[in-house]
Write a structure and sequence with these properties.
With 475 residues, this protein is of the alpha/beta class. It contains 21 helices and twelve strands. It folds into three domains: 63 residues, no CATH class; 190 residues, Rossmann fold (3-Layer(aba) Sandwich), CATH 3.40.50; 195 residues, Serine Threonine Protein Phosphatase 5, Tetratricopeptide repeat, CATH 1.25.40. The strands form three sheets. The protein has a seven-stranded mixed β-sheet. About 8% of the residues have low confidence.
């Protein structure tokens, strides 16, 4: 016996059930896949009604897993959309330029990797790049069967259809029926894990603070609510400056998470912004007297050639320590920044908190920021640091409320207007987001050319204007 589906609306409950379990959506063009799987499974399990089959799915996790796996389309092959993979490697090389690419280990997540062709392709290309063997890739898929196949690294000729004979001979060893990936270094650099993209904490802490995530032609199978959730998970897993690549057919993620967006010839590139922690050393530290509201509201212009950094510390030792911490931070040595500043946080609470956030030590960053706000409630920078911690935790509404406190204390705080615009945009308040970005733009326009933005680390007026304009375009 098997179930006969007469009307498409009869599938609505089943589609909701599958969507709740996987996040998948079934458009009209994909309903035939669901009907085919339903017919096959109902015949095997002797089901005569949809209600009976739905009950079996609800009560048997094993059957649910097997049924959802049958709905997956494992259509992939080696070096698929090779230009996109090459672009990712180029972006990673540029990101690490000046940070000794050869010694830096690139850490990448191939999300929805199917049977492993994509992560292995990326590994082979990375081995021939400036990274050499200095990379690690984790490939995930919801299908355990696909993960097992990927770990086996044996493929049919169909998976190699984009490779010429020289490439096949270079990378694979031919067997009776399959081709075995013979590059042991590529296989050693790739790990496979079963994971559902819609569920948080699927990857271990080992795979946090990633350099890049590649998720191509996967999001098309998910409903919008699931897509938004996945985007936030990706954002959280990336390190500041980390890159996300999706497929040309995937839905845009603009507004789903606080990514910077770049349109390229091979598709959209999403980038997690570098955390804009601003020079707390320029403001009063906990050991110095609090400023009055009048002095806080006074506009400040700092030229690039000024001695603002030198004046950030009150003593020669503090100045030397601050400069050393800044150099360590610029080269990504955040753990060393924490070791240097933790015993004396007043030298630069800003650098210390930013480093903690980059290391994923949010709880410690929160404690420091909250203590600063309690000790100096009239210092706008302290409130902004706390808001940045909240933004790193995707608590955009809470962050917006704190940023407004900072703006109450300093209405000329350009960075605060900018971050308020981002928070409001992420929560769907486009009108306020637009207003805040325009406020930042107007304040920037009032500054002289070549001026550095007060409290915005190492960014000139022109650089910051470009950031504001980018968000104005998106909003």
């Amino acid at each position: 016996m098997q179930i006969q589906v007469l009307q498409k609306d009869e599938l609505s409950t089943l589609k909701e059930l599958i969507s709740g379990y996987t996040g998948f959506t079934f458009t009209a063009s994909r309903e035939h896949t669901l009907v085919q799987a339903l017919s096959a499974f109902s015949k095997v399990h002797n089901c005569t009604s949809l209600l009976q089959f739905e009950h079996m799915l609800r009560t048997s996790d094993a059957l649910m897993k097997k049924f959802t796996e049958s709905l997956l389309i494992h259509e992939t092959y080696f070096f698929r959309e090779k230009d996109s993979l090459a672009q990712l490697i180029s972006l990673l090389e540029k990101k690490n330029d000046g940070n000794n690419t050869g010694a830096s280990v690139a850490r990448i997540w191939s999300a929805g990797c199917s049977t492993g062709e994509e992560p292995y392709s990326l590994a082979l290309l990375l081995l021939e790049s400036a990274f050499k063997a200095n990379f690690r890739i984790v490939g995930t898929d919801i299908s355990q069967q696909a993960i097992n196949h990927a770990g086996n690294a044996h493929y049919s000729e169909w998976s190699l259809r984009s490779l010429n004979s020289a490439q096949r001979e270079k990378y694979f060893e031919r067997g009776l029926k399959t081709y075995r990936l013979k590059d042991e270094t590529a296989k050693q650099r790739v790990t496979f894990v079963k994971a559902n993209l819609t569920e948080e904490n699927q990857l271990s802490r080992e795979w946090s603070n990633l350099d890049a995530i590649i998720c191509r032609n996967v999001l098309i199978y998910f409903e919008q609510q699931a897509i938004s959730k996945i985007a936030k998970i990706f954002f959280h897993q990336l390190k500041p400056g980390g890159i996300l690549l999706t497929g040309a057919s995937d839905p845009p993620l603009i507004g789903c998470a606080d990514f910077e967006v770049e349109y390229t010839a091979t598709g959209i590139v999403y980038r997690k912004p570098e955390l804009q922690i601003y020079k707390a050393a320029r403001r009063s530290q906990a050991a110095t007297p609090m400023k009055s509201r009048k002095s806080i509201n006074k506009p400040v212009v700092v030229t690039l050639n000024s001695t603002a950094q030198a004046n950030a510390a009150s003593a020669g030792h503090a100045k030397t320590t601050f400069e050393k911490a800044m150099q360590l931070y610029r080269t990504g040595q955040w753990q060393d920044v924490v070791k240097l500043l933790a015993p004396q946080p007043s030298i630069s609470r800003s650098l210390l908190i930013r480093s903690l956030l980059n290391l994923g030590r949010t709880e410690e960053a929160t404690i420091l920021a909250e203590a600063a706000c309690q000790n100096e409630p009239l210092d706008a920078t302290n409130h902004l640091l706390l808001a940045l911690v909240m933004m790193s935790e995707q608590r955009q509404r809470d962050a917006a409320a704190i940023i407004k406190k900072a703006l109450f204390l300093d209405r000329n705080y350009i960075v605060a207007h900018f971050l308020l615009g981002i928070s409001c945009f992420c929560t769907g308040d486009r009108n306020q987001a637009l207003k805040s970005m325009k406020n930042a733009q107007n304040l920037l326009n009032a500054l002289p050319a070549g001026a550095a933005i007060p409290l915005a680390e190492e960014e000139s007026r022109e650089q910051f204007q470009a950031n504001v304009q980018r968000y104005l375009t998106i909003i």
